[in-house]
Amino acid sequence: MSAESATPAVTVADLRLVDLFDDLDDHALGEWAAVAQPRSAEPGEVVIPGDEPAQGLWCLLEGSLQTFVRDGERLEPVGHQDAPTWIGAVPTLTETPITVRMVALTAARLALIPALEFRRLALAQPAVHRKIMRQVRPVVARFAAIQQNHERLAALGTMAAGLAHELNNPAAAARSSAVDLAEALGMIGEAIREFTDAGIEREDAARISDLREHALKQCAERDSLSALDAADAEDAMRDRLEDLDVPDAWRLAEPLAAAGLDGEWLERLHALAGPATPAAIRWIAASLGAQRLVSELRESTERMSSLIGAVKTYAYMDRGGLVEADVHEGLETTLKILSHKLKHKEIEIRREYDRALPPLTIYGSELNQVWTNLLVNAIDAVGERGTITVRTRRDGECILVDIADTGPGIPPDIRSRVFEPFFTTKDVGAGTGLGLDTARRIVIERHGGSMTFDTSEQGTTFHVWLRLHPSSPVRTENHP
């Protein structure tokens, strides 16, 4: 950036355009102009790097600056500043870093009031100090909104990844079953043609069909065998098929044995089918396989439908914003959505529900974000093995929801910061992205409730109180 030697000096007339100084006379404004350092920037030039100590107050006299916030390793544009305006007063006054990065969109002319001089003049001139203080809340609110939007997008990404993972398994199973079912149906058609060519009598064909129906019914009603018993039954069936000179006996033995068919059944079939016995066995084995594949397809599609239904319930998509719902519905839906995080881990989920609790009037999708945050935190705290307990009960005029884990607890040095805005101990992109501060505000501001926690080396329990009636008082306790 070009320094003051190459840029015209800053005058009172230049600063008069900046609304921070509206209440100052020319004499007072002259004190600011006397210490102002002129700067200029070309398009694309970095004016404020971000994440560095504030240099002072920046007055943008001409041009525009693009504002970026850092999202991990990426910089995301969030708006722009147009002259005349002022930038960096709050972090300079509070001696904190400017967290945003600002880059010149156009050729820009600026004035920098160095930090020490700025603080001296701002504190000496109440009109300027009051104006800065009036901007603190809007500035914090604006950046909080940006951060919360990032958090919700991160949460959505986490949820979408989990849903995609969960849907992939039943979808792959359904796809595989559909391919196998097409092959089984082809085998059935081929076997029927062989019956026709063999000239089997109508009555014998009807009896063979009865044997097939018996096999299908028996298979549908039969409980699964243990692995050892199933292997023994399959070996015995393969031997009987080989005795009848049935080709591919090893392939046909498994569905016949699984249906509980025996030597007597085979003898009856052979007596009716004669030389067409191999075709009859292939027909029945293919029918048994098709029945199993249809069942697998049904289970896979039901699983996908269940997951999609869980997402709709989680978001309360068809029920508007404010809904009357059982608190357990949201907890169970959230657990289902997060089931992918529990796979391959030895984590026990204990439910201690008071099912007699009445329904609540809640913002369902927002409250489910709270359950998501608390459960993900509990899963992360437990690690590879442990217990998470979800407990509900009535507590006076409130419903109390506890989510407890057997993790190592929250370290003493950060317990007081757990509910601070933007505070996290996780890496960028980890967890749901929804901070505990946001979760507590959903409970308090949107539902008039309360949220606290207990923690020790034996684990952590988060307590959420939700009012049964809007006018009832909310119980609050001081927890560490």
Describe the structure in your own words.
- This protein has 480 residues and is of the alpha+beta class.
- The protein folds into 3 domains: 4-124, Jelly Rolls; 162-306, no CATH class; 319-467, Histidine kinase-like ATPase, C-terminal domain (Heat Shock Protein 90, 2-Layer Sandwich).
- Helices cover 51% and strands 21% of the residues.
- The chain is elongated and about 120 Å long.
Radius of gyration: 36 Å
State the helix count.
Answer: 14
Main-sheet strand order equals: 12-14-15-17-16
- What level of helicity do the residues show? 40-55%
User: Which overall shape is indicated by the principal axes computed on the Cα atoms?
Assistant: elongated
Count of DSSP E strands?
Answer: 17
What is the percentage of strand-forming residues?
A: 15-25%
Q: What's the CATH class of the largest domain, please?
A: Alpha Beta
CATH superfamily of the largest domain: Histidine kinase-like ATPase, C-terminal domain
Number of domains: 3
Q: What is the CATH topology assignment of the largest domain?
A: Heat Shock Protein 90
Q: Structural class, please?
A: alpha+beta
- State the end-to-end distance: 49 Å
Instruction: Write down the overall mean pLDDT.
Output: 80
Which regions are unreliable across 5 or more consecutive residues at pLDDT < 50? 427-433, 472-480
Task: Based on the model shown, name its key terms.
480 residues, five-stranded mixed beta sheet, alpha+beta, Heat Shock Protein 90, 3 domains, disordered C terminus, 51% helix, Jelly Rolls, four-stranded antiparallel beta sheet, elongated
